[in-house]
């Protein structure tokens, strides 16, 4: 990120803080609230305003710099318009609770617009399962479906405080670093700071807000577009990698991809619609095992980081297909451990997370949130 953008960081953070506090107070008036239901893990009405508090200043600043700054900013109109429409869709959904059919049609239209206008799509599997270059039409269709899947996967894991925001922040940071930073540091810096501010409120007891569909869908779109740009062979972001780029992308987006696929498979096996809402996500399982919201989020983020690091060190020594088998095996073992050794895991993780993160939470609540 250009040093010329540094002066925008403090006012951006101030804008997110101001909007979060403002929308927090007027969330009920605007109808942007989350009311508890049978699947909820909260018992009070909570404003769904975290996403718009982050993305309004991000979009205003990004589009303004894109239009008036001589130094080109990330992507193009396809990114800024696509993200704007996704955030608008999420805000309307937060207010009106739109039907899934309507949302899917709009999401597919936005995904198709981005893929076709940006030219960033999956056009090569780089030898995975013996497949290299794939036909253009097939690649475009596969990429559109993938973008919609990722948008909704990030939204579906937004059921525990900080989880969607924390895992998305980690994934954005990893993808940005693999792509050499540059103009992509703009998203990491500004969305990252916005997410940190949001998580402070999200974990607060007195000043709690939720990300909302505007935030979750927006984060999903940002991650999906970064992934499409990373995987397109013409951008050559992966020449330095020791592991297949497709596997790398799946690892970085591991939790939303794996958990959503796992839940879909369980629902289908029970004769239910894969989109049937329930409490089968892994974060729900951890909550039922006695984990706190904060413990669930930090544990899943630690597991995701562990997968990325272990694959980084093992990739130069092992075949990509063997790495897939090892990763699947590790996921199964973690799942079994959570299921059958939850008490020991909960006690250890509660002690660890409290010692590391509680001082930070207390300072935030004292000086900012409360």
Reconstruct the topology from this structure.
Layout (H helix, E strand, L loop, with lengths): L8 H22 L2 E2 L11 E2 L2 H19 L8 H20 L3 H19 L5 E5 L2 E3 L2 H21 L6 H16 L6 H18 L9 H20 L13 H8 L1 H16 L12 H7 L4 H22 L5 H21 L1 H28 L1
Antiparallel strand pairs: 1-2, 3-4
Helix pairs in contact: 1-2, 1-7, 2-3, 2-7, 2-8, 3-4, 3-8, 4-5, 5-8, 5-10, 6-7, 6-8, 6-12, 12-14
Radius of gyration: 20 Å
Calculate the terminal CA-CA distance, rounded to whole Å: 33 Å
Low-confidence stretches: none
Strand portion:
under 5%
Derived structural class:
mainly alpha
In N-to-C order, the SSE pattern is HEEHHHEEHHHHHHHHHH
Tally the structural domains: 1
Number of helices: 14
Could you tell me the number of beta strands? 4
Shape: globular
The main β sheet shows up as: 2 strands, antiparallel
Mean pLDDT over the full residue set:
84
User: Looking across the biggest beta sheet, what order are the strands in?
Assistant: 1-2
Q: How helical, in percent, are the residues? A: 55-70%
């Amino acid at each position: 990120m250009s040093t010329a953008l540094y002066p925008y960081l403090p006012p951006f953070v101030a804008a997110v803080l101001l909007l979060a506090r403002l929308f927090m107070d007027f969330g009920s008036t605007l109808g942007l609230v989350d009311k508890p239901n049978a699947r909820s893990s909260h018992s009070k009405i909570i404003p769904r305003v975290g996403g718009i508090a982050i993305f309004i200043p991000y979009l205003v600043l990004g589009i303004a710099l894109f239009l008036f700054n001589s130094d080109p900013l990330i992507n193009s109109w396809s990114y800024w318009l696509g993200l704007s429409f996704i955030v608008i869709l999420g805000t309307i959904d937060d207010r009106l609770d739109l039907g899934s059919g309507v949302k899917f049609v709009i999401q597919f239209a936005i995904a198709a617009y981005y893929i076709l206008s940006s030219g960033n799509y999956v056009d090569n599997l780089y030898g995975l399962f013996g497949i290299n270059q794939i036909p253009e039409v097939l690649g475009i269709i596969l990429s559109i479906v993938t973008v919609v899947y990722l948008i909704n996967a990030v939204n579906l894991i937004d059921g525990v405080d900080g989880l969607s925001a924390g895992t998305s922040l980690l994934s954005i940071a990893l993808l940005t670093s693999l792509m050499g930073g540059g103009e992509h540091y703009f998203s990491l810096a500004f969305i990252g700071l916005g997410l940190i501010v949001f998580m402070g409120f999200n974990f607060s007891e007195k000043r709690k807000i939720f990300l909302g569909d505007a935030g979750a869908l927006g984060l999903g779109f940002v991650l999906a577009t970064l992934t499409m740009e990373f995987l397109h062979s013409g951008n050559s972001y992966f020449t330095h990698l020791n592991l297949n780029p497709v596997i790398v992308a799946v690892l970085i987006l591991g939790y939303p991809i794996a958990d959503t696929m796992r839940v879909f498979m369980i629902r289908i096996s029970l004769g239910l619609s894969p989109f049937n809402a329930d409490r089968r996500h892994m974060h729900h399982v951890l909550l039922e095992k006695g984990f706190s919201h904060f413990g669930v989020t930090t544990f899943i983020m630690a597991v995701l980081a562990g997968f990325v690091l272990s694959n980084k060190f093992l990739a130069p020594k092992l075949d990509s297909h063997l790495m897939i088998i090892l990763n699947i095996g590790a996921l199964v073992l973690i799942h079994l451990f959570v299921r059958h050794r939850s008490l020991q895991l909960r006690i250890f993780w509660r002690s660890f997370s409290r010692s590391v993160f509680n001082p930070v939470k207390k300072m935030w609540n004292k000086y900012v949130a409360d």
